[in-house]
Amino acid sequence: MARKTDDEKLENIYNAVQEHPGKKAGFIARLLGMSRSEVTRSLPSLDDKGLLLYEDEYGGLHPLPQKQLQDS
């Protein structure tokens, strides 16, 4: 049962980043009612699930464009 909650949390984080590209982890955390560290700690799990994000030079999170996924 806990696994589904984790999956939902990861999908919520990814969807929030898609809706607000370039926002920092703290913004995403406040939006979802989480701590910043919870969002940051979830980033490797997002990668493991194939929900790929990258961080820009200012700390903003962005979904990896689909074209880059296909070229890899």
Write the layout of secondary structure elements.
Elements: H1 2-19, H2 25-32, H3 36-48, E1 53-55, E2 61-63, H4 66-71
Antiparallel strand pairs: 1-2
Helix pairs in contact: 1-2, 1-3, 2-3
Question: What would a concise description of this structure say?
Answer:
This protein has 72 residues and is mainly alpha-helical. The protein contains four helices and two strands.
Molecular structure report:
The chain has 4 helices and 2 strands. It has a two-stranded antiparallel ribbon with strand order 1-2. With 72 residues, it is mainly alpha-helical. It has a single domain (2-71), classed as Winged helix-like DNA-binding domain superfamily/Winged helix DNA-binding domain (Arc Repressor Mutant, subunit A), CATH 1.10.10.10. Helices cover 62% and strands 8% of the residues.
Observed structural traits:
mainly alpha, 4 helices, two-stranded antiparallel ribbon, Arc Repressor Mutant, subunit A, 72 residues, 62% helix
Strand order of the largest sheet: 1-2
CATH H-level superfamily title? Winged helix-like DNA-binding domain superfamily/Winged helix DNA-binding domain
CATH level 1 name: Mainly Alpha
Kindly provide the radius of gyration, computed on alpha-carbon positions and rounded to a whole number of angstroms.
12 Å
Number of strands: 2
Distance between the termini: 34 Å
Arithmetic mean pLDDT: 88
Which fold name corresponds to the CATH topology?
Arc Repressor Mutant, subunit A
Query: By helix and strand content, what is the structural category?
Result: mainly alpha
Tell me the major beta sheet: 2 strands, antiparallel
Provide the domain count. 1
**Which CATH architecture is right?**
Orthogonal Bundle
**Count of runs of 4 or more consecutive helical residues:** 4
For this structure, the quaternary state is single chain
Overall geometry: globular
